[in-house]
Amino acid sequence: MSKRNVIVHLIWLFVTLGTFVAGSQLARAIRGTDKSPGAGVTIPPSTGKSDVAGQADAGETGRYVPLPGRAGGKPEALPSAPDPQKSDASVERTRRLQVNRSTMAREASEALQRRGPLGKKQIHSLVLQAIKAPSALGRRQAFDRILEEMGSATFTREQAFTMRSAMAMNGADGKMWQLFDYAWGANDPATAIAHLDEIPQQYFEGFLGNMIPGVASVDPQAAIEVFSGLEPELAARVQRRLFEGLIDNDMAVATNFIYDVTDPETYNWRPMDTLTREIVRDQGLDVTLDWAAELPDGALRSSAWSAAFAHWGSREPERAIESIMEMESSSDRNQALNGFTAAFAHEDGSMAVAWADEITEPGLRQGALTRAFTQFYRQDPQAAAESFSSIDVPRGVWHEATGQTWSGAGQGESSGTGGSAAETTPAAN
Asked: Running DSSP on this structure, what letter comes out for residue 42?
């Protein structure tokens, strides 16, 4: 055999061996993918990563999952592409919105940087930004610039009306109106007051309530004159806002107003109660208690002291009662208990009754017990009746508190209605 024939045979031998090896590897791979029982193949846990770029592991979101009631398999067709016309319209709307926002922000920025009086264009830009800017910071900066302009020496009636018109046009909320009208009253009280004769009736009370504290903060007498000319029902509704402005000016001014308008012969405790609660909101409880302690003895001091502890008792009953326990027996302590029990009875009528019973002034004690038993009866009629039978108090208090004629401790057993009497004791008034 020639040398050439030997070489040819060796080449074919290597080719045959290579083919055999490749075939063996392919058969092994096919057996490895067999998922039938007994195949003896161990499947490695999924790593949650793609084996091939863009193809998720089996069981991940990339796998097609048929909808309920639909046969499995691949979708018959891919979802259709969005309507080009709708897509274009959406893009155009988005573009216009972005342009409008950009324009609004640019014009507002120019107005913010402008020194000197603001013109109509700048005012409209700032108001629009203050109401509709996407960020809270942008809205706040714009409105602060408006308030700054209102506090300037060049602020005019025309500017005020331009601002109000722009606010109404762009849907300003109640908080913005409240701040604006307060600022107008504080920065230009004469013009703001004159506007009361021009504003439509349906907006009159709202504007008055917002404006009058601003006027009172800088010109208390002007605000008091406006308030004094109001109808009694309207005056009662805006009284708190007047007090708010008077306190912003000076607590002494607010206090003197109460004493000036109070008739000792026809005493009304509500104005002092309202003023006290407004001082608490504005100055805090400690300042309010110090202020009440300095008032002269009398009905107004009593009302202030009671209102202060009513506020305290509704928010921090433990601290309020600790303070009362440290007080010596006095009119102030009685008023503190009166206010505390009025506020706390809604939480615990039984405890309110116990503290009201500590009041030493007979008339005040009876009134406090009436209020306490009103709440106690609503919370637990039977327990309230048992408590009432053990307290030295006129029997008529039970009727005032519950609407039921007192006939004995057992009457509270009928589910809060007073029920039939367990005793036949005649009612006492």
From this structure: P
Residue among 117, 174, 171, 180 at smallest CA distance from 144 = 180
3-state secondary structure of 52: strand
Question: If we measure between CA atoms, which residue out of 206, 218, 292, 291 comes closest to residue 248?
Answer: 218
What's the token pair of residue 78?
A: 């891919």
Token look-up 């084996």 returns: 51
Going from the C-alpha of 205 to that of each of 90, 160, 181, the distances in angstroms are: 45, 19, 12
How far CA 396 is from CA of 242, 248, 373, 384, 400, in Å, comes to: 40, 45, 12, 15, 6
Segment holding 203, helix H or strand E: helix 201-218
DSSP state of 67: P
**3-state SS, one letter per residue, for 359-428:** CCCHHHHHHHHHHHHHHHHHHCHHHHHHHHHCCCCCCHHHHHHHCCCCCCHHHHHCCCCCCCCCCCCCCC
Question: What is the DSSP code string of 276-289?
Answer: HHHHHHHH-HHHHH
Given a cut of 70, the residues of the chain with pLDDT beneath it are 1-116, 409-429
Contact assessment for residue 283 and residue 247, using Cβ atoms and an 8 Å cutoff: yes
Distance CA 142, CA 166 (A): 13
Per the CB < 8 A criterion, the answer to whether 182 and 213 are in contact is yes
Q: What is the pLDDT of residues 141-162, one digit of tens each?
A: 999 999 999 998 899 999 999 9
**b/e for 348-370, b at 16 or more Cβ within 10 A?**
bbebbbebbbebebeebbbbbbb
**How far out from the chain centre does Cα 417 lie?**
37
pTM of the complete model: 0.65
- Separation between Cα atoms, residue 58 and residue 73, nearest integer Å: 14
Tokens (6 digits) for 245: 């402005």
Q: Assess contact for 351 and 368: CB atoms under 8 A.
A: no
Q: Up-side HSE of residue 296: CA atoms within 13 Å toward CB?
A: 4
- pLDDT for 408 equals 76
Residue 185 token pair? 């009253």
Alpha carbon distances (Å) from 413 to 378, 383, 410: 12, 9, 6
